[in-house]
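Re: the 256-residue chain
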Amino acid sequence: MNKRGRVLRDPSPSGPGLVIVEGQQFSFSLDGAWRSLTLPKPGLDVEVELSPDGTVSSLVAIPETQLAREQAERTLNAARESASALAASAVAKFGVSTLAATGALVLGWFFLNALTYDAGLMGKLDFTFWRVLEFLNSSNGLGDALSMRDWGGAGVYGLLAWLALAGPYAGALWADKRAALGGVLPLAFLGLVAAMARARLVSDVGGVPAEVMDAAQVEIQRGVSVGAGAYLSLLAAAYLAFNGVKRFLAAGSGVS
């Protein structure tokens, strides 16, 4: 019967070696019992075969690669268990629908294109929602976009975006019934950004004769197309807003 053990003392002329297996200590000799090229030493992990009479029949040193693989598997399993427990706790506290809608919002804001602008000979410029925030935060938004220069971050608009994402969770963290209205924040922020982006475009083409500015605005509007990120964000934000208002009204009427 093979069991995992650890060498406590290596054999020497003064006495046999000592190995511990499941809390019990067994003596062993180098001749006959030891079956590895690696010599035994204290702290070495071994596979121990015990004979029916309880003596050590054989010992084999466990390779370092196997020990490392087993440790990695234990770490991975522990991480999976922790992640599962965290996910279960989040679902119980916030609800699957809120978490799913937030995930869709993150996907729509950070990964999918919200807008695509056809700049003619310069090609098409794709904008995620986060990229639109960087446009609003830039000092020369449209000019930098057309010249492919970096806008340098979303600044305060990025902070507001993260606060809006956290809004739907306020009701679960704050006892006041009005906290449920935090679910409206993503939708309100989307509307605010859309209005500000339109105003910024008008501002960026200003300072020219009215007929030229009107033509430029029409040309920009023709070149802009709405992407999947915008639609997904709008749907997710609308759901979170509806859910937040519903919870607020339910709390006001005493319905849980």
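The chain has ten helices and eight strands.
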